[in-house]
Structure formats: structure tokens, C-alpha cells
Amino acid sequence: MGSYYMGEEIVVIGCGASGGTAAQFARKTDREANVTIFEKSEYSQYSKCALPYLISGKIDDPKKLVEFSEDWFSRAKINLFLSSEVTEIKNKRVYVKRGKRIIEKEYDKLIIATGAKSAIPPIKNIFDKEGGLKKGIFTLRTIDDALGILNYIKNKKNVVIVGGGLIGLEAAEAFYNKKLNVTVVEMLPNILPSMLDGDMSREVYNQLKGYINIFTDHLVTEIEGEERIKSVKIKNKNTREEFDIPADVLIVSTGIKPDVYLAKSIGCKIGERGGIIINKRCETNVKDVYAVGDCTEGKDFVTNKSFVVGLGSIGVRQGIVAGINAAGGDIELFDGFLQTRTTKLFDIEIAAVGPISDNLDNIISGKFKGLTHPEYYPEGSQIIIKVLCNVRDKRIVGAQAVGKNVAQRINTMACAMLHKMSVDDFIKLETAYAPPIAPTIDPLAAACEVVNMKLKRRS
Amino acid sequence: MGSYYMGEEIVVIGCGASGGTAAQFARKTDREANVTIFEKSEYSQYSKCALPYLISGKIDDPKKLVEFSEDWFSRAKINLFLSSEVTEIKNKRVYVKRGKRIIEKEYDKLIIATGAKSAIPPIKNIFDKEGGLKKGIFTLRTIDDALGILNYIKNKKNVVIVGGGLIGLEAAEAFYNKKLNVTVVEMLPNILPSMLDGDMSREVYNQLKGYINIFTDHLVTEIEGEERIKSVKIKNKNTREEFDIPADVLIVSTGIKPDVYLAKSIGCKIGERGGIIINKRCETNVKDVYAVGDCTEGKDFVTNKSFVVGLGSIGVRQGIVAGINAAGGDIELFDGFLQTRTTKLFDIEIAAVGPISDNLDNIISGKFKGLTHPEYYPEGSQIIIKVLCNVRDKRIVGAQAVGKNVAQRINTMACAMLHKMSVDDFIKLETAYAPPIAPTIDPLAAACEVVNMKLKRRS
Lengths: 459, 459
What we know:
2 copies of one chain form a homodimer.
Chain A: E1 9-13, H1 17-29, E2 34-38, H2 51-56, H3 70-75, E3 79-81, E4 84-90, E5 93-98, E6 101-106, E7 109-112, E8 116-118, E9 137-139, H4 143-152, E10 158-162, H5 166-177, E11 181-185, H6 198-208, E12 213-215, E13 218-224, E14 231-236, E15 242-246, E16 249-252, E17 256-258, H7 261-265, E18 289-291, E19 297-299, E20 306-308, H8 312-326, E21 341-345, E22 348-353, E23 363-371, E24 382-390, E25 396-403, H9 406-418, H10 423-428, H11 443-458
Parallel strand pairs in A: 1-2, 1-7, 2-3, 7-18, 9-16, 10-11, 10-16, 11-12
Antiparallel strand pairs in A: 4-5, 5-6, 8-17, 13-14, 14-15, 19-20, 21-22, 22-25, 23-24, 24-25
Helix pairs in contact in A: 1-8
């Protein structure tokens, strides 16, 4: 394979959001570099997070999910090879399976963005005889998954979703919109368990239960049906009681498993969570090898604990940093990730940043339940904000919110957390005020003030 | 007048947003203190910013504007005296005119929150023989002003608004909703001149001109009509050309003049802008005397230049700080004000923080015009973000935005500015991402990236 430039050879494995972004920023940083992406699927960089909306029909054509097309990469002078699976890395070369051929390419810098696979929970009879998922059982990580689901659910009635996290609930809404009867089964006591505290989760639960069936503290233990799934056995974790519910379709969304096969093969260190370990420059322990996205582990900004990166927002920022550094720039990620995240379920906006209370010590929280607008203004809608802060220095260490426009509010909290702001300082931050927009003391600050009032009552 | 508590006597002059807030926070800080407010009008703490919505009819009852009622203050154990004008301060006592009586009250700490009056521009024949505004000419700062306007505009047709700032344009929308023919006359080349750069202002102008007439670079030079206003003479500042337009009603909204009579009388230092000078604890130069709100001056966080405080968001934060300190607490404002501000005009949300470009040196700006949502998601709407940053250290020194949900985005920028974040760091901030909410790279970060691209092109 020839090089279009005489500059450095930068090779990216995987054209998901993080890999594609890395290539983009490498190109911007060094116009002389030769930037090449190998992507094993046939799709150019597309939005995985949008797959539920492809199922619901909100997005009517899978082509629309492609955020950066082959053409785009070509115009950006990035060599993108689709349907090209890197099978081996050796002596600073990648070996790529394209159809029946194996081609090879040298690199100066390598960026691994191999992503992750869906984790499959231990459910009896979930696999067929060939070791694949039984007919009617799906994961939801690729366009092909979504198209397979869309094709299968025609004339089906009941769908069971294993896992009440972000993807599980977004899928639940999609199936509801497709007029299926939807049941979500969550092992933990609350839905969105890694995002919301129990009390905040229940606020969401109370609104969702009008649309879908939700079993928390329940496990799917067994699949029934020979040829294809017919029903599932569900077990109450507390009472140990078991019962069957009909299921024409089962969606597994219980987390991800980083795809680290290639990284491991060249000696990249793998962390306790199974992801590639990288530093703030997105370098692995192997010289000239970077890693980004769902195949990596991150450290939480507040707790410093490891987690598997499963958020596009993080993957993209890793991509920026790895791309710039691989191309000779010098940029570092912050000291850990804030894990800002959001979703919209049945028109309810939900957002959070930082760990939930259960993962924190010595915290005090403030919760504000009120209106987005001044009380006298007729267009206010309900908003609930919970702020978590360290009891000693009053530093904000987390925030969760449910209601209109909460995602942008959580961004402000993310910025505050990054700068280790205290609730006292946050109250002094001038937020935008106008009657048709927000009150003088925004709900964010009101939640901070609740923390102060609680502390005063204690003293 | 007896004291309800044996604690310190804290007296607040004025029950606007800043005075009322100061009293509230003094009460919270010291439960033993005796907190007293004297308010010259008959109204308890109400929202001045909501007056345009009282005119439009969006808010149908002036009572609704009251945010904290007499009852509320009474429950909070704050002594609120309405229709009580402080006329003199001497020997740590205030003298208060209540009807025909003068009462006096000692204080340990005094908080001056006397507010401001509307500035009246030099327009020929604007006053009547008694020295008041001619019939049909109004300012818009009090409930009484708004009620007077509402009463006067019945069966009127043409309204002219002098001043194309926030209040002027909010009033313009209100009159439009009341089916009047509205003309706004702005002396400067752009509307919202202290909030937006020319290019951003024009984006708003282009949308507003479908509803109202706007003359920029024009002055109202003369009022015509004997008994009452009939028409106004308008002058083009560039061509010097003059012409008449019919005006049944004229609204003056060309800024404010701090009311510092009492403060001056006890020796409080007054600044170059005519407001009371206070430090970060909201103390004046006179011992035990604090000042807050529209009667004070602030320093801009970025330029360090003085400005007259005319924003509720600032007044309220000064109130918090003065109240806490007057009651024995210890809290400081930040080093200057960010001047976060927002409005909604004809459903267009506009927000900004920091100075406009004209007031800054050595800056480079990045402008992003795109969608609030990922491009593939059908519900995105147009958003324009402009970020101003220092060309040397890339620190963000201002941001302006027009479009859906921009106020909350500007809050994030305000938090970033407070912490002197650079555009490079802002791009790394994890913002909330989900297809129905926002793209992975939020428009805010996209505008920051435009700055980087411009700098790269220069180098």
C-alpha cells in the first residue's frame, strides 16, 4: 500500500467515534502525516448511540446514522478502509484481512480503537447449538444488530430487555413506539443504577411505569423455546420466587466487554475491568501505541476508581487527545473522567455527572424539586436536581437531574466539578436569569443551598 | 420600635431582589439577629424583570410578580415595613417616613439597597410643565409604571421605544403581543449593544424585524404633541436626516442611574459610573454599612472596568454576600462579575457572558452555526455560538449565543470563564451527549475548535 504523504504513518484500528475522531485530529495536527483507518465493518463512522432511534423509526434510514462518510474521510485526506479487519500486529506492522486477501501496513504510530462487545449474562439456554445467541435474542451495538431486530420484530408482541441502564431503557422506549409490549428486567434495586441514586431513579421509574413493565431486583434466569425464544423465566432476587413471562424478543443490554485481543497480543497492559490501560496522553505501555474508546479503561475523576469507558463523550475526547499526540502534538486528558451522561426517555430528560452516592464516602446531598422558571412565570415545568458534595470541604462531587433542559445544567455542574468548586462558590456563580428562561437562583444553586441548610441544621 | 430578638440589629433599605435577599440570608446566618427592611413602595419583593410580561398579559395579575410576600417575610421572622421611606441616616439610626409620621430605628449593620432610577435621555419636550414625563411617556421599572402603561395603551396604536437593550426589546415584544405597532430606536449601530457583537446582534435583528420596526444608529430628538405625545422626531446619526413617526406612547429604556442619595449623605464613596463602591464583602467605605444591587457599581471579571449593576442575577448574589457578612458570616464575591445575561424575544433565546469584542484587546473569536442536536437526529434546531478568547493564552473571555437552550449553555461558559479555562481545555470537558439531547462535541466546544482552526491557519 502506497503512502500519499511522505510524513509519519499513523494507523488507526477501528472507525467508531473514538477512532474516527483520532484520525481527524491527527490529520488536523500534522498535515504531512499519512493517516489510515482500518474498520472491520462495512460502515463508516456512525453513531452507536442512535441505534435505538433507528429501531423506533425516529431515524428512518441507517445511512443517516453515518456521521462521517467515506467521502468525508477522503476529502479530509484520511485513508479509510472498510471491511478491513486487522488480525495481527507485529514488528510495527498491522496485518489486515480484506476479503480473502491479507495486506500489511507499517506504522510509526498506532491507535487502537477496537471498541467493545456486549457482555452476555449467564442465562440458561441463551445460546443456540452453534454457540450464537438463540433466535430472537439480540444485542444492540451495531447497525446490523438494529436491522436484524427491526426485521425480526415484525408481527411480534412481547419484548423483554435485560438491563435497565441507558441503552436498555432507550431500547425500551423504541420498542414501545413500535407498539410492542415491553418488559425491562434489572438485577439491581433501581433502573439507571450507575447514573442515579435510588431516590432519583424512583422519580424516573414512576414516570416510565405508565409505558413499560419494569422489574427491578429481578434476574432473567432461563430462556424457554426450542427453535426460538418463546418466554423467559424471571426470578425475584429477594423472595427467590420465579415466574414466566412471554417473550418473542429478548434484548441483552447488561454492559460491555472491551475488545482487547489485538492490544493484548502486543503486550498492552489490561486493567482490572478488562480494558486497555492508558495514560493521560492516551498512550498504552507499548511504545508508539495509543488506545481510545470502549476498549480502554478510565479513572473516575472523583473516586479515582477504574471503569470501562462506554460513553461516546469520553471516547471522542480520548480520540482528540490520542490523535493530536500521535501526530506530534502534546495534549493531556484531565485527571480522570467526570462521566457526564444523559438520555431522554418518553420525553423525560435525565442527566448526571460523577459517581452515585453509594460509591462515595463522607458526602452530604441537597435536593431541589421545583420549577425551571420563576414561579410567577406560566411556562415553568418540574425539575429535580440533586447535588452531592463532600461534607468536609463542601466540594461538589456529583449531580443528578430529571426534568426539562437538565443536560445543559449538568454540563455546568461538570465544569464546576472539574474545577473542584464548592457549593458555596457555586451559589455565587452568576447564572443566566430572565423570567422566560430561569429564576435568579437557578435550581442548580437552589440544590447547593439545600446542602448549606442541612449542614447548618446539623451544627 | 421594639426588637423581637435581643441580637444584632440589621436594617435593610429597600426590598427589591437584592435587599430582600440580603435580609433572607442575614436571617439564615444569625437566628438571633433582628432583621428589618424598610421599603418605600407598597409592594413586597417582586420581580422587576417580569414587568414586560405583565404588559403582554402573559402574567395576568400584578400580585403574581411578588416573589416573597409580606407573609413570607413575617414567617421568616423578618420585619418588613412597606410604604416606609428612609429619608435620613444619622448616628447609626435611620429615619423613616411612614405616612405622616417619621419613625427612627437604630442599626448595628445597615444594608443599602436603594436601587436605581431610569436614566432620561436629552429629548426635547420630553417633560411636561411640572417637570414630569409628558403624558404618554413612560419608564418601566415598577409595577406602578407597568399598570400606568397598561391603562394608557387602551385603544392606542403606535408605540416608540427608546433603547434597544434587553428591557427595550422585551417591552417591544410585549407591545407587539398587545397588537400595537412597535418601533424601537437605538442610538448605537446594533440592538443589544452591551450584550452582543455586531454579527451576533444582526442574527437577532434579522429575526425581530419581521415583528417590529427597528432603527439603529438613530436618535429620538424631539417629542411632538402638546397635552400628550403625538409623534416623535427621529434622526439618522449618519446622514443627519430627520423624520417624524407617529407615537401614542413612548417608552424610555436607555439605562439606569443608581439611587445613591442616602449613601452619599453618610459619606459612601461613589464611583465613576455613579454607583456606590463596595468591596468583595459588599462593604462600603463607611463602617458597618453594606450596599447591594442597582445602586452599586461592579467590576467586570475580565476587563476589571466599572459598570452599573443592572442585573438581578448580580444583585441577588450581592444580597447573599452582604446578608451573610452583616450577620457575622464571612463570604466574598468573586474577583469581578461575569455579567451572564439572557432573554427570550419572540421565542428566540439569546444569552451572553463577559464583555463584547469591542471592549476587549488581543482576542480571537470562534463562531459555530449549526444544530443543537446531532445532524442525523430530526429534532435539531439552529444554534449560533460565538466564543471570544485571548489570543495569547487561549483563555475564554466571553461567549454569546442565539438559539434553543442557549442560556444554560452560556452558564457552562460562565463557569469556564470563572476558572479561566482555555478553549483547549474546554474541548476536553465532557459534555452530556445523547442523540435526543446534544451532539458528542457540543456547539460550545465546536466554537472553541473554530478558534483553534483559525489560530492554526494564522501560524
